[in-house]
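Per reviewer request, we include the raw input and output of the structure prediction for the construct analysed in the revised manuscript.
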Amino acid sequence: MTISYTIQEKYATLTKSEKKIADYILSSGEKIVHSTMSDIREAATVGDGTIMRFCQKIGFSGFSDLKIAIAKEDFSKQQEDSQESDFFDKRTKTIDKALKTTNQRLDNNKLKQAVQMITEANQIYIFGVGSSGNTGNDLEAMLLRVGVQSRSVIDPHFQAQIASLLTENDLVIGFSLSGRTKDTHDSLNIAKKNHAKIIAITNYQLSPIAQLADVVLQTAIDEFLDGASLAGKISQLYLCDLLVQSYEIENNVNTIELRETVLRSILDKSLD
């Protein structure tokens, strides 16, 4: 039994306000997994209590529980639709789509702003947790190759401590596909209060993390159940690569000389 069927079956038992929520969810389909309570409140002009009662009437403990069930249902359908023979083609297309969509969402003016912020920053820190934290580590290494020293911090407690010491001359680059990662948001919020500059690399322009940023570079991954997927990682890394390459071009970085210096330092550490 699908969730749509359950809602339609119980539709007659819903109040007028609850029916507004039902209509919104039925018309949104699987896209509802990216909505928040605030989105529902605004779209259906109802309160939080009404949303909770609606969710409970159709068999869920709350809105998050409902979103997870919808995401699971959609994910299962996609798995069923995929035959074993086209599995590899499908994964390739998913990654290709992530790259193309990321490129389509790219705002060149914002990219230039981000490069300028990196150029002018006194200190650069990179915040992220989980898979996004790993991407932050990758960006730190990529920036180092063009002569930019930064520090990736994946521990939320250290992030908060560092953020509390930042000034208007410092920069934080924050990673979060959803734009709603609480640890990252809390740390960026502290940095914002200290007037540090913020670049957010996230999927949603109106997400809480994006709202804190001076510049937003958009990723392109809508997999609610698979946020740490390869497609999401590639979307983030593609933007990192563009950011670093743009910095290199804008600042006339002599990468051959830099790479030679780095290579020599590595060779010097090799055993004969």
